[in-house]
Amino acid sequence: MDEPKYVQQMRESPRFGVDAKGTVHELKPWEPDEFTDRHELMCRMSLTMRNNEIADLFGMSQGKVSTVLNDPRAAAIKREAQQAIQHSLADVTARLAMGANAALDVLEEQIADRTLKAKDRRHSAIAWLDRAGYSKVEKKIVAHTVIDSAVATVVSDALRESAELMEEADYSLVEVEE
Fold first, then answer.
1. Strand ranges, E, within the chain
2. For residue 169, is it within any domain?
3. The domain containing residue 78 runs over which residues?
4. For the whole model, what pTM was predicted?
């Protein structure tokens, strides 16, 4: 079965584009010839929206959105937009929120990377849980009683001394292999 003439022409004439670093490269068959305003808008929206949300807004498949956002030219547009937003934000909290997804991606990669030491992976996992609101559980014992001032002084001194020892202590978790 012969291919249509336009398919043969597409195969014979290479297309070129410029990636995020300014390097000229041959475009893959699925990459758009040029980045339109619509593509640029999709890149900017990807900073705060998921691919399926963008696809619904533009009335296209998630695969097409993914193709546009994974194009080498999209990285430069997203980076520019993110830097512009970060530089315009005086609020530290808002700047941290902008970089939170990238930071979580790094933590997720570290947790999954079996080539890292268990200690480093555990540290990443604890950091992830801490940011998610699952902070370390601390037991606090509260008691109310009436005691003599001399006894209170001895107990107070003992508590102060134990607190100092606790600050100096070095704790580490030990993994037990079964």
1. 16-18, 24-26
2. no
3. 8-88
4. 0.38
Examine the domain organization and report whether 60 and 115 are in the same domain. Answer: no
Q: Are residues 104 and 56 in the same domain?
A: no
Q: Is residue 93 part of a domain?
A: no
Of residues 103, 100, 30, the one with CA closest to residue 69: 30
* Distance of alpha carbon 156 from alpha carbon 89, whole angstroms: 48
Beta-carbon contacts of 26 under 8 Å, excluding residues fewer than 6 positions away, are: 14, 15, 16, 17
* Residues 105 and 99 sit within 8 Å (Cβ to Cβ): no
Q: Within a domain: residue 122?
A: yes
Q: Is 42 exposed, middle or buried (0-12, 13-18, 19+ CB in 10 A)?
A: buried
Is residue 108 in some structural domain? yes
Short-list 64, 38, 70, 44, CA closest to 55: 64
Phi, psi of 25 (to 5 degrees): -145, 160
How do residues 52-81 score in pLDDT, each as one tens digit? 888 998 888 888 888 888 887 788 888 888
Q: Which amino acid, one-letter code, is at 65?
A: V
In the structure encoding, which two tokens stand for residue 37, read together? 């305003």
